[in-house]
Amino acid sequence: MYTKKQVAQTIDHAVLKPETTDRELAANAKMCIDNDVFSMCVKPCDIKAAKELLKKSNVKVSCVLSFPHGADATPVKAFQAQQAIADGADEIDMVMNIGKFLSGDYEYVVDDIRAVVDLAHSHGVLVKVIQESGYLTLKQVARACELTYEAGADFVKTSTGFGPGKATTEIVDVMIKTVGDRMMVKPSGGIRTWDDAVGFLQQGADRLGVGSTEAVLNGAKAEENY
Predict the structure, then answer these.
(1) Residue 47 covered by a domain
(2) For the chain, how many structural domains are there in total?
(3) Domain containing 58 — which CATH number?
């Protein structure tokens, strides 16, 4: 049985919509503090502001990188990581290069992730790798997990919330069985109810990406897509 506080401490609250205003960012930061979530996950341009808004709380700042397509050149991803850390990010959620993975260029995928991981780890910053699993078969999910582990990342993560599909029990099961003893697992996308959240935690997930955090924690069904 999970308490509201226990679930809150697994949530990276996502504030990633392109139209989010500064005022909305501040309102989300207050909600994160009030509910004592683990982190607020923001766009790169919002890291500094989020750090300032959350500075008197225990809420960490996480950020997305090469979001939502993962298609930036590797040196650009590495620079984004450097800038994010300089701006105050505590954790980084990067998107795997989906096209290169589906092309079978696994060496590129590993090197691309490792470039970010090496830089982030030198600053004590954790890296989560978003597969955008909705584009992949379950067999491909397992392969992407292995490549992510090979590259040294800390988490595998399902979805951006902006691509096809969402976190499912089947995808998360494959992730846990493939690398769950070596890495952490973060379902994200489509987690809109308390039962969704608790279900993934009971499966063995370590962190949750949630956009409708308040509704989830209050046991209400959220209307938002992410």
Answers:
(1) yes
(2) 1
(3) 3.20.20.70
Q: Which of 60, 100, 166, 186 is catalytic?
A: 186
Is pLDDT at 220 greater than 80 in this prediction?
no
pLDDT digits (tens, 9 = 90+) for 69-111: 999 999 999 999 999 999 999 999 999 999 999 999 999 999 9
Q: What is the pLDDT of residue 1?
A: 84
**Residue ranges making up the domain that contains 24:** 4-217
Task: Tell me what pLDDT residue 32 has.
Answer: 98
* DSSP H or E run through 17: none
Catalytic residue of the set 12, 157, 166, 196: 157
Judge whether 41 lies within some domain.
yes
Give the tens place of pLDDT for each residue, 165-213: 999 999 999 999 999 999 999 999 999 999 999 999 999 999 999 999 9
- Catalytic annotation present for 93: yes
Place of tokens 């109810």: 193
186 assigned to active site: yes
Active site (annotated) includes residue 157: yes
Closest CA to 66 of 40, 50, 84: 84
184 in a domain, yes or no?
Answer: yes
- The catalytically annotated residue of 12, 46, 90, 93 is 93
